[in-house]
Amino acid sequence: MLSYPAPPPPRKAAPGCNLIALAIATILFLGFMAFLFFLALPFLRLLTSPLMSFYEEGSCTITNSQVETIDAESTEYRPQIAFVLRTIDGRSYQTAGYDWLQLGLPDQGRAQTLANKFTVGQTYACWYNPWYPSWTILTRDIDWSTIPPSSGFWISGIVSSLVLCACLLTSIRKFLGLFRRRRKYTFSIGDPQI
User: Model confidence over 15-27: pLDDT tens digits?
Assistant: First the structure.
């Protein structure tokens, strides 16, 4: 009598990563990476701009220091400091600015603190583009407070990145396991019956 092994039990769904969770994690991860790229773009422009190396030091006398609202709907604020620039060759220009990027801050208090660093009537060192003196800055430092302060945003981005990596590694391991697995088809012949 011939006996065949019982058919294997149906495979259970993979615990953990299903296709929908993988798609959601991928979308979150790509969105997070796109936002990081968007956030880093001004810094990359700053670092790669050949004009930044040509900025010369001048002296700037502050004429007005205030906080302006960039857009009433987005409620972003920026220190706007007006000053008279005196260049190396003795020329004077009336201009305004603060830093390289001129990005908005979500907190009006922080913008006001930055504006309060410069007192009206005082003279400070500043840096200007000799070919276009209205491009003048009062600080060469990058203000890291322009990065969104939402810890929930950063935590969710990091968690979704880790979930995506775990799902991808699990999927790759299972995919490679399909090629390594050997299926054994066996059959046994029972005792001969007389």
Answer: 555 667 677 777 8
As a three-state string, the secondary structure of 135-160 is: EEECCCCCCHHHCCCCHHHHHHHHHH
The dihedrals phi and psi of 103, each to the nearest 5 degrees, come to -85, 155
Give kind and range of the element (H or E) at residue 175: helix 151-180
Look at residues 46, 52, 2, 19 and name the one whose alpha carbon lies nearest to residue 187. 2
Q: Which fold has domain 51-141?
A: OB fold (Dihydrolipoamide Acetyltransferase, E2P) (2.40.50)
First-to-last C-alpha distance (Å) of the chain:
11
Within 10 Å of residue 139's Cβ, how many Cβ atoms? 17
pTM of the model: 0.51
> pLDDT tens-digit profile of 88-112?
888 999 998 887 666 777 778 888 8
- Two structure tokens written together for 47: 């670092």
